[in-house]
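Reading a protein record of the kind used here takes only a little practice. Each token is a code from a learned vocabulary of local backbone shapes. With that in mind, consider the following protein and its fold in token form:
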Amino acid sequence: MVQFIIRRFAQMVLLLIGISFIVFMSMHLAPGDPATIIGGPTATKSDIEAIRADLGLNKPVLVQYIDYMNGLIHGDLGYSYRTGQSVTEAITTRFPITIKLAVASMIVAIVIGITAGIISARKPNSMLDFASTTFSLVGVSIPNFWLGTMLILLFSVNLQWLPIGGLNSPFYTTEGFKELILPAITLGTSTAAIIARMTRSSMLEVAQADYIRTARAKGVKQRKVVWVHSLRNALIPVLTVAGINFGGLLGGTIITEQVFAINGIGRLMIEGIASRDFPMVQGTVLLVAGIFVFINLIVDLLYAAVDPRISYD
């Protein structure tokens, strides 16, 4: 197990280095000059050159990348071109908001998805199964920005039950909980649909196994067969989907945070891209990529906890 973890961490480091290189080069090859944006329309050519020299943009791109990686190794993500704020400080301030939204969305996805999948698997080809299948199809097909807008229109504008946007209040307060409901549903719906389909398929496959027939032949109650024997053995593909999609939820917050005016990492990334704020974009992308890779490692380790037959020794 220890060797497996060490090997995976080494792979993570190499992968993140590759991601940092791709993002760095993509930002520098994209149209638009940060120095021109910072200088504004009244800046002269000499002013723009002075800004480029101050930011180090006049150096060769590979030299800039080496300087960036040197700072990264020492824990320095640089400073925002747009605000002058430390990238680390900006991420530290906004990251808890994004994590709160992503975790709430994953809870919504898991609760709805697994419940719908189990109900559908217990009664295949029934009206409940048809309803679950329809929900899965609709959930995967609806874009986040459209669903979020419709939820705001219905529950915030027309019914006035929930706030329009923002996650400014602590989540454990009544107001904070209300602010979290619509963004969490918006972000978690598509993942819930995927988990529902995966749970249904996995449960139906496990239901044909010999140990399930043996449990039923012994007179084990149906509830125990479903929740203890079937579900536990059907969880491995569900864990894979949930883990991968949690990383996707962090990326999906970019759209959801824009719709609900949430000042999280996603919105920070969009602001950085719009202003060609290289350090801010690189820092936020690396953070999301690092979490995504780390979650995949956690999912791999959870396999052994769910199914004792799996060993990494």
